[in-house]
Amino acid sequence: MHSPQVAVIVPAAGKGTRLGGQRKQFRLLDGKPLLIRSLEVFQLHPEIDLIVVAVPGGEENRVQEALHAAGLSKVGRVVAGGASRQASVYEGLKAVPASFDYVLVHDGVRPFVAQTLVSDVVSGLTEHGAAALAIPVTDTLRAGAEDVFGQTRPRDGLYRMQTPQGCRRDWFLQAHQHAIASGIEATDDVDLVQRAGFPVHIITGSSLNIKITTKADWDLACIIWPAWQQEK
C-alpha cells in the first residue's frame, strides 16, 4: 500500500513590522530563532517527509545553512518568498516534488503546535482531502463604529483559524492557479482552497497554538516556553 508523502511549507518572509526590531522569525526564543522553534515539531514528526521554507529574498543560503546546522534535515528547499504570504506559499508549493500527495502550510512564527495536532490534520487530509486547525470563538462579538458599540453578533459556528492548514497537492496547485487567474488575494490557505471549490474539514486546535505577531504575543511566548518544554 502506498504510504502518502506529506510536505509542509513554512512561509517566513514577512517583515514583522507590528512587533518591531529584528524580523520576528529570526528573534531568539530560548536561544534559538523562532523559525527553528516552529520547524522542530515537523522535523520530529514521523508523518512529515519534507519541509520547504520561504524566506526574504537574498536570505536563502544563509537560512538554509542555519537550518541544517540546527539539525533540521527534512528542510529540502529554502526559497525566496513573494510580496505576500500567498505568493510565498506558492513559491514554496512549486518547490514540492510532484511525488508528494499532501501539503501542509504552517506559520513560521507559530511554535506552540503539538505533534498530536499535526497528526490530526494529516489524518483529516487523508480522509477528506483538505483540513485545517481552528478553535470555536468563545468571546462575545459586537459591532462598533466611531467608538460606540453596536449590535451583538452571534458567535455560533464561528472559528478562529490556526495552522497547519493543508490539502491534496493537486487541489492546492489548482487553488493557487485559480487565484492567479482570477486576481484573488485570499486571507489564508483555507480561503484559497474554498474559492477553488474544495471543501475543508475542521480539526479542533488549541488555544496555546498562538501566532506571534505583536509584542504582547512575544511576551506571552516567553512565559509559555519553559512550561511547553517541560511538557514535551
Structural write-up:
The protein is 36% helix and 25% strand. 39% of the residues are buried. It starts with 5 loop residues before the first strand and ends with a helix. The protein has helices at 34-44, 60-69, 85-94, 115-128, 169-182, 189-195, 215-231, and strands at 6-11, 28-29, 32-33, 50-55, 75-80, 102-105, 130-136, 141-145, 148-153, 159-168, 201-204. By secondary structure, the chain is of the alpha/beta class. The chain is built from seven helices and eleven strands. Mean pLDDT is 92; it is low at 17-21. The strands form three sheets. The chain has a seven-stranded mixed beta sheet, with helices on both faces. α3 (85-94) packs across α5 and α5 (169-182) crosses α6. The chain is globular.
SSE layout and pairing:
Elements: E1 6-11, E2 28-29, E3 32-33, H1 34-44, E4 50-55, H2 60-69, E5 75-80, H3 85-94, E6 102-105, H4 115-128, E7 130-136, E8 141-145, E9 148-153, E10 159-168, H5 169-182, H6 189-195, E11 201-204, H7 215-231
Parallel strand pairs: 1-4, 1-6, 4-5, 7-11
Antiparallel strand pairs: 2-3, 6-10, 7-10, 8-9
Keywords, separated by commas or semicolons:
single chain; 232 residues; alpha/beta; two-stranded antiparallel sheet
Report the helical percentage: 25-40%
Radius of gyration based on Cα positions:
18 Å
Mean pLDDT: 92
Low-pLDDT segments: 17-21
Question: What is the H/E string?
Answer: EEEHEHEHEHEEEEHHEH
Could you tell me how far the N terminus lies from the C terminus, measured between alpha carbons in angstroms? 32 Å
The biggest beta sheet reads:
7 strands, mixed
Q: Pairing-aware structural class of the strands and helices?
A: alpha/beta
Determine the oligomeric state from the structure.
single chain
Sum up the overall morphology in one term.
globular
Going across the biggest sheet, name each strand in turn.
5-4-1-6-10-7-11
